[in-house]
């Protein structure tokens, strides 16, 4: 009996053994995403209980305020990179190995950053009051959002988004990760995301994440392009994710402008930034950034996660303490430098040793 083999399956079989390798350009893109978010929080955001600069952000940085107001889109870039990297790192792993690698990657730096941020806010509550002791303990689980506890730092909301993505992807790994199953997973997730918003079921929205799904799916699709070439089904998946992302970012921009910044923002720059995110990731997927290399990129990629975790509330505290005494650009440069050095120290002396310890213990088999 003849067996029909589709072009996508033939290409999958031909390229499945391709080894996992680091794409250094993605480390540079991680740094870009982190700096976008840092710029947004330090230059554009002023709606806290106590504005860190003591006055409206558009008065402090009249020229930088508008472009920095779109820095929150760095999170969307993070999500596309995450979809790409998670698909890469999960290949040929069991669900247990995959989830264990995520715990080792996320928790050590997170624990140290949460405790450090709590300590800084407890000693100098200049812009935010620290959470209570019980909320701090809940934060250490990284489940404070579903448990209704206040986060030690507001940027931690993205970790709950990532955690849900990992759980969904673990189901795919359990089912059997291949180009075909990952492609079907991507199409299915986009369809579910399109329908979830119309069904009025909050629990379904929590799982499906319609506002974030296009970015993760785009990353998955572009990794598959990178792995086995530009099959039409994969480019179509990335294109569908792009079109959905353009719709979602319009809705997200309205929320940011109305509820977060409290000022109107033009939609077109956000659409352009999202298009640029998809374009540069597509270029990276096709290997055209393979010449972008360097030790500094690897270091930058390692620092982006601790920098993201540390920068907001600690940075605001430093800004509030320094701005009465120094020019605003000197304060901005000083605070960015301080949180970057703190991120390196956290990575070098806390995250790496703790990750090694955690890896050693988590890889031990359970007793029978």
Automatic annotation (TrEMBL):
Molecular functions per Gene Ontology: acyltransferase activity, transferring groups other than amino-acyl groups
Keywords attached to this entry: Acyltransferase, Membrane, Transferase, Transmembrane, Transmembrane helix
Record carries keyword Membrane: yes
One GO-annotated biological process of the protein: lipopolysaccharide biosynthetic process
Stretches that traverse the bilayer: 28-45, 70-91, 103-125, 154-174, 186-208, 220-245, 265-284, 329-350
UniProt keyword Protease present: no
Residue ranges of every copy of the Acyltransferase domain listed in the record: 24-345
GO cellular component: membrane
PANTHER family: ACETYLTRANSFERASE, ACYL_TRANSF_3 DOMAIN-CONTAINING PROTEIN
Protein name per Swiss-Prot or TrEMBL: Acyltransferase
Origin species: Couchioplanes caeruleus subsp. caeruleus
């Amino acid at each position: 009996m003849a067996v029909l083999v589709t072009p996508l399956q033939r290409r999958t079989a031909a390229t499945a053994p391709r080894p996992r390798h680091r794409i250094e350009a993605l480390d540079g893109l991680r740094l870009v995403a982190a700096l976008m978010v840092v710029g947004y929080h330090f230059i554009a955001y002023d709606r806290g209980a106590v504005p860190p600069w003591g006055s409206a952000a558009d008065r402090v940085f009249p020229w930088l305020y508008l472009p920095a107001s779109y820095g929150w889109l760095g999170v969307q870039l993070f999500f596309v990179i995450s979809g790409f990297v998670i698909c890469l790192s999960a290949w040929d792993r069991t669900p247990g190995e995959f989830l264990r690698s995520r715990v080792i990657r996320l928790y050590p730096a997170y624990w140290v950053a949460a405790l450090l941020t709590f300590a800084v806010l407890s000693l100098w509550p200049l812009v935010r009051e620290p959470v209570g002791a019980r909320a701090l303990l809940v934060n250490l689980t990284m489940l404070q959002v579903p448990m209704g506890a206040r986060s030690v730092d507001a940027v931690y909301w993205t970790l709950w988004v990532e955690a849900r993505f990992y759980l969904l992807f673990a189901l795919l790994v359990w089912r059997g990760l291949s180009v075909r199953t990952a492609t079907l997973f991507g199409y299915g997730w986009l369809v579910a995301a399109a329908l979830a918003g119309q069904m009025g079921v909050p629990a379904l929205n929590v799982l499906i994440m319609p506002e974030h799904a296009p970015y993760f799916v785009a990353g998955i699709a572009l990794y598959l392009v990178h792995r086995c070439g530009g099959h039409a089904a994969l480019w179509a998946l990335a294109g569908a994710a792009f079109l959905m992302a353009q719709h979602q970012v319009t809705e997200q921009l309205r929320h940011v402008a109305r509820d977060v910044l409290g000022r109107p923002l033009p939609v077109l720059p956000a659409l352009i930034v999202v298009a640029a995110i998809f374009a540069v990731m597509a270029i990276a997927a096709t290997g055209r950034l393979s010449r972008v290399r360097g030790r500094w990129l690897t270091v930058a990629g390692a620092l982006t996660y601790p920098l993201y975790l540390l920068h907001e509330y600690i940075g605001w505290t430093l800004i509030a303490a320094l701005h009465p005494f120094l020019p605003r650009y000197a304060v901005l440069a000083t605070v960015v430098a301080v949180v970057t050095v703190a991120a390196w120290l956290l990575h070098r002396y806390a995250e790496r040793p703790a990750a090694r310890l955690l890896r050693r213990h988590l890889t031990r088999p359970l007793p029978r």
